[in-house]
What we know:
The complex is a heterotrimer. By secondary structure, chain A is mainly α. Chain A has one domain: Transmembrane di-heme cytochromes, Chain C (Fumarate Reductase Cytochrome B subunit), CATH 1.20.950.20. Helices cover 65% and strands 4% of the residues of chain A. Chain A is elongated, with a radius of gyration of 20 Å. The model of chain A has no long low-confidence stretch (mean pLDDT 90). By secondary structure, chain B is α/β, with parallel strands linked by helices. In chain B, the strands form 11 sheets. A 6-stranded mixed sheet of chain B has the order 25-27-26-31-24-30. In chain B, a hairpin with a 6-residue loop joins strand 16 and strand 17. In chain B, helix 4 crosses helix 8 and helix 14 packs across helix 16. The longest helix of chain B is centred in the middle third of the chain and has 19 residues. The two termini of chain B are 43 Å apart. Chain C is of the alpha+beta class. Chain C is built from 9 helices and 11 strands. The termini of chain C are far apart. Chains A and C meet through helix 2, helix 3, helix 7 and helix 8 of A and helix 4, helix 8 and helix 9 of C.
Amino acid sequence: MSQEVMTQSQLATLAREKEDLAVDGLIVRHTAAVRLTHWLVAIFFFLSLFTGFVIFTPFFAGWASVFGGGPMVRTLHPWFALGFTIAILYLYRYWKMKMKKEAGDEEWKDNFGPYIRYESELQNVGKYNAGQKIYFWAVFWGAIAFLASGIVMWFPTVFPYFLRTISYWLHEITFVAFVIGIIYHIYMSTTAMPGTFRAMTRGTVTKDWAKWHHPRWYREVTGEKK
Amino acid sequence: MTNNWVDIKNADVILVMGGNPAENHPCGFKWAIEAKKTRNAKLICVDPRFNRTAAVSDQFVQIRSGTDIAFLAGVMNYMLTNNRIHKEYVANYTNAPFLIKEGLLLPGDNDGLFSGFDPQKRAYDKSTWAYEMGTDNFVKVDMTLEDPRCVFQLMKKHYSRYTAEMVASICGCSKEDFLKAAEMISSTYAPEKAGTIMYALGWTHHSSAVQNIRAAASMQLLLGNVGRPGGGVNALRGHSNIQGATDMNQTHTLPGYLKMPKPEWQSLKEFIDATTPKKLRPNSMNYWENTDKFMVSMLKAFWGSAATTENDFAYSWLPKMDRDYSWVYIYDGAYNGIVKGVFSFGMNPVGNGPHSKKMVQALSRLDWLVVAENFETETASFWKAPKEYDPPAAAQIKTEVFMLPAANFAEKDGVFTNSSRWLQWKWKVVDPPGDAKADQEIIGRLVLKLRELYNKEGGKLPDPVVKMAWNYSNPVSPNLEEVAKEVNGKVLEDFTDEKTKVDYKKGQQVPGYAVLRADGKTLSGNWLHSGYYTEAGNLAMRRNPVDDSGGLGAYHNWAFNWPANRRIMYNRASADLNGKPWDPKRPGIWWNGEKWVGDVPDYKPDYKPEEMIGPFIMNPEGVGKLYAVEMNEGPFPEHYEPYETPVDNPLHPKVSSNPVTKLFKTKMDVYGTRDKFPIVCTTFRLTEHFHYWTKHEAILNQLQQEFFVEIPEELAKEKGIKHGDRVKVSSARGSVEGKAMVTKRIRPLKVAGQTVWQIGFPIHWGYAGKSVGPLANTLTPTALDPNSSTPEYKAFLVSLDKA
Amino acid sequence: MPSNMELRRISATPSPATGVRTAPTVAKMIDTTTCIGCKACEVACQEWNDLFNADIALEAPSEFGSYQTMPDLTANFWNLIRFNEHVEKRPDGSEKFHWLMAKDQCMHCEDPGCLKACPAPGAIVQYTNGVVDFQQEHCIGCEYCVTGCPFDIPRLSKKTKKVYKCTLCTDRLAYGLEPACIKACPTGCLQFGTKEHLVQIANARVEQLKHNGYEKAAIYDPPGVGGTGVIYVLGLGDQPELYGLPNDPHVPWTVSVWKHALKPIGSLLMIGALLGTIIHYVRYGRNEAPGMRKVDREEV
Lengths: 226, 803, 300
């Protein structure tokens, strides 16, 4: 076996258990557990999303047949959503410390315009930039809002009328926010920023990618100086 | 009903009292609503409870149960003192001008009793009540109504004691409510106005039952409301065919209200002489003069060719009633071991009868009991009555019980006679399930078997059964149309009617009771129904929906209305002395110069107005009776307290209750007193259920799910009872438990200065069926009206506790 | 749907309704002043619709003891007479007792809140004659209609997970018959016909009542929902709540805003977000780390 193959195999093993580890030209960004949890979140999110769309607007009524019809959609949606909520809680367990505010976040926010124009050259960006953190917390609180309003909508007649109507609104607004969020989440992690998506598949990113998008993290992991 | 259901729509004022038609006759009650909507009629509801009828009434007066006579007498006093009576009608169409013999004492002058009371016998010697007869053998009259001995003056005096204050004190209502109601009711005294009364068991279930109705009739006569469209005294019958059952026979009458023979009338002649009334006025038609024709035709229907002139038309085969054989007495007889066997067809005595525990005991002492029913009723299963009814141990009951499954009303053809006296044919809808048989088949098989046994074994008196006319094409299960033809009557031998010169041929159906004969040439099972199955066919099947009475709703071609298809009885009284309708817009019959036209006249069609023949042709007086000697407790209605009463009678405390109430003497016949049982209790029925029958039916059980007790809010508060709590109601005879329904619909009453509480509960439950509950009659007393022998189901004393 | 009845409105359906044939708006009139609470309408409803044994009666027969059959409507009890005892304080200081009875069922609103709230295409329809009907085969059981209804009528069946209510007997109307409750009513307090005609009858009755001591008698035909296909004559017309009817019902504004504002705005925002990514990509392209190999880019 060549040296290269050995390294890949070792790397895969390592990436299952440890992150923030630099090997050759790659850095382990997410452990297997985190990736798995993220994908669970994603799967349940999309199942909820597509069943939700059926109820949200008659333009997607046809999708109901994918799930076995309208009544099945009504039955499954809350259970998908419950899966989403649980997965989110696991993600929260992994990421609640990592998503804490730290030095450099304010600077990032101030630099948001240049960032989206690809003009930002900030060096004090850690493993997660402020935007990612905001996104994470938004998803977390959004999931709570979904859950709270969703339970009311699951069993509407158990709850007083005003709670019911509040829930409909809350669920609706959260839904729109989530859809907008997911569009950008996917766009940024695939098309807009090549080399990102593999962090959620293989768990690794290239050193070049890390150095470019998360310079401080790169330095921390590799021990390189500025 | 003197009138009919549809005619209620012609009323200007509707008094609902002693009945709750919105609850119990919702379909007929539509005509009251119709009157309210189209004529702006006023509906007055007088009842112990604010009931469903009260909910749509214009004026509601709450009274204590059993004080109806006081109320009605008060209204009459109000009318007499305020001159709100129909003078011309009263003078000419009632016995107001009739003179009464010297010697009559009224209760006001005699400590609450009429003259002639024998306390030992608990009965009246009525000789002092009689009319003053003239030398011409007719009653003396004073058409000025001024003579102090005339009925009118006596009546005025008698009712004068029922002042508004006295009524309020007896009934427990407010004086203002009473006066408002009296004003509304009496507004129909104007000749062009008509008012009706709708009543039912709320009047008949009392120890002064018949007098309640007499009071109502008197009031309607004073107002000139009897015999007119929109008027009358209208009994709302409780079963779809109870009118037919009453017409056909009761224990004290034969079909068509012919009297039941007594032991002292051993021959037909004695019977006819005793039961045919004599004219009391020269201008009285006295239609009961035809009693012999009706009786002989009936005997011919019973025994056919075995009834001959030689054997008095088999009169001797009729039972002779030596005592009261009415309903409660049958079971008292069973309790006392006199009655050995009972056939109970479509009847549930354990449920219906007063004092359920005594009923269970009574049935336990029979040798045999045959129950023909749709369901296994309380009666059929009396031997497994729950322990609350103190039944004897099942092993000790010797009664042999036969349960015959019987077809219900929809599973057989036949005729229903409704409250309007309409004979309406009905057709079978479905076959009876399983072994169930129609009544005529059960009876047919019994008849044939009994004959077989009599023929084989002989017996003391086989003839009435063996020689009975049973000439049906299928003797096992007679075709009811054949029976109907027999009831109507047919010609047995050719004859020519002496008056009309019409020939009648053998085998022909008689056209009506007018051609029935006393010589045995006709037969008719019931003269009153005669005319319903003539040569023109079965008129009870007619369903012509065209109103031929100009909007008055007579519908003469709908079914057959006994007597003689007459829609309003006594309708001669709907026109004035000259034969002109009191109200031209609502004519009953009128004189067109040659004859009476309009409704079928209750009168000879060619009697000229100037002949002044009395309009009440069935009364020997020829007029309506404000004063009736026939009554057992007095010729005028007098307020007597219910047998169990919370107060002494404010009019005469020494004679509180009806002095001639029929009571029973076994050790179970106990009566409560106000110290132990201070609360007045009444029973009632619910729209959702029908007697003890519908508790076998799931969808109706759903509508009223369980037995409940209606309790006034204030009493509930006093007793610490909340809506939905379980309560126990006890009388001297037993107790029942059920859910409390705390309501504003019964208010506390101020009676004779003290607060009297009233509660009530529905009947309808029992221990048989899908929805079980207590039998209401566990609590009711064995105290009967002295005239009709109806038990006092609607007013008795109880105590109330939280269970 | 009966074949000879056409649709005016269909829930959650972008395409137009089917009806081009016109039909007069039909209505049911309930004259509470002549209602005797006999429940013939309840039985007729149960029998015609084969709804034997309603849930509450079966589940908890001892929970209720009153003249009112049940505390409330259920998925298999669509027609309930409500009984209420009320003491009226008269202007002259006296008190008048009323035992009020009013039939409760779907009101068949001109502007039905249930239909507005319903997300399932075709689950709630309104026929050209104004009758609002649930088509259970399209119902998804979300109960949005329960929230949308200002009269609190639709009920979810635990068994089928679908909502039910009075259909105004569309299966009878289609064949020229009146609804079963009307047919059964013995006093004529229930009447059926064109709304125009019934409003006339109701007006005449209200005038009569006003002369008979019901000064506040009125018709109940609430304009907040565009009028209803069930109109009442109320003796105490100023207090419909005594009869179990809301005083001034509207399709809840929360439902209207939700359906008419939140949803379109939200949809636009979502579409906008999608467009945003495209515009961004076109304008700025990729943000690629310098030195990335082609293989790094494409590896997933």
